[in-house]
Amino acid sequence: MTLNNRYDFVLVFDVKDGNPNGDPEAGNLPRMDAESGLGLVTDVCLKRKVRNFVGLVKGERPPFEIYVKEKAVLNNQHKRAYIEIGKAELLEGDDKKRKGGDSVDQARQWMCRNFFDVRAFGAVMSTGINCGQVRGPVQLTFARSVDPIVALEHSITRMAVATEAEAEKQSGDNRTMGRKFTVPYGLYVAHGFVSSFLAKQTGFNESDLELLWQALAQMFEHDRSAARGEMTTRGLYVYKHESELGNAPAHKLFELIQIKKNSNEPARDFNDYTVNVNDAGLPAGVTLLRLVG
After folding, report:
1. Neighbours of 77 (CB within 10 A)
2. Residue 64 sits in which domain range?
3. One biological process GO term for this chain (predicted)?
4. Is 227 in contact with 234 (CB distance < 8 Å)?
């Protein structure tokens, strides 16, 4: 069933004693706004968790394959598209990027039909073998913490070594030192948008949308690791517009949800905050769906 409504949504999640999104260019420190001290989690990080959840639940089978995943060879997927649409002869020769002609559109449509993340988030598929570009109907912002975060550094030791040579160098004491960073507690908010116009172009439908909501609600439950600590979706508030163009500006809807800390003490739990949702302030033609929280 095709999408005929615009959606804007607010995702609220928290982290306790973990690193929600390390910055590899800063020694894997938790990402942070240098001026305000607020914690950040990138849209790419959140999309990765959605992709992992969908791949886990749907078993990587069409139409729910995942295009962007670890160790994926993207041009191999592009090659599949041309083979499946019966245009394998267009892959011959060295200049694959310029080949395809009208078949590029067919290849792009095949990619949208088979890969959930292509029809949801879009993709640039013109690398090497050209399958065109797709602008996705689902977009996410960076998540930003409600209050400034504190990045704690912890020294850790490893008793074992990887090779015999290392063991010989460390005779008598096999311990090697390391570091890990955690945020004691942080409550984060991200905003998202779903365009029905772009959804019609990629084939993103009502079933895909329900799967997206399920992923945003449960993605942290299947992404556990010692490095990430405890991460939990605390709120998923979806504003559904009657009109495809929308019945109110997104920023006005987002302002209806206010999160405040209950005291001046450092927050260490979700119960240290109060989430206020102004249902009475909803504009005409907009419905609030409280999927979590």
Report:
1. 21
2. 7-149+181-292
3. maintenance of CRISPR repeat elements
4. no
Helix (H) or strand (E) holding 214: helix 206-218
Cα 253 to Cα 238: distance, rounded to the nearest angstrom: 10
- Note whether residue 65 is domain-resident: yes
Residue 54 host element (H or E): helix 43-58
> Are residues 219 and 52 in contact, defined by beta-carbon separation less than 8 angstroms?
yes
**Total count of domains within the chain:** 1
Helices (H), 182-281: 196-202, 206-218, 250-254
- Cα Dmax for the chain: 74
Tokens of 212: 């997206």
Q: What is the DSSP letter of 285?
A: T
Is residue 86 a contact partner of residue 106, using CB atoms and an 8 Å limit?
no
- pLDDT tens, per residue, the chain with 293 residues: 899 999 999 999 999 999 999 999 998 999 999 999 999 999 999 999 999 999 999 999 999 999 999 888 999 999 999 999 998 888 876 555 455 567 899 999 999 999 999 999 999 998 788 999 999 999 999 999 999 999 999 988 877 777 777 777 765 565 677 789 999 999 999 999 999 999 999 999 999 999 999 999 999 999 999 999 999 999 999 999 999 999 999 999 999 999 999 999 999 999 999 999 999 999 999 999 999 99
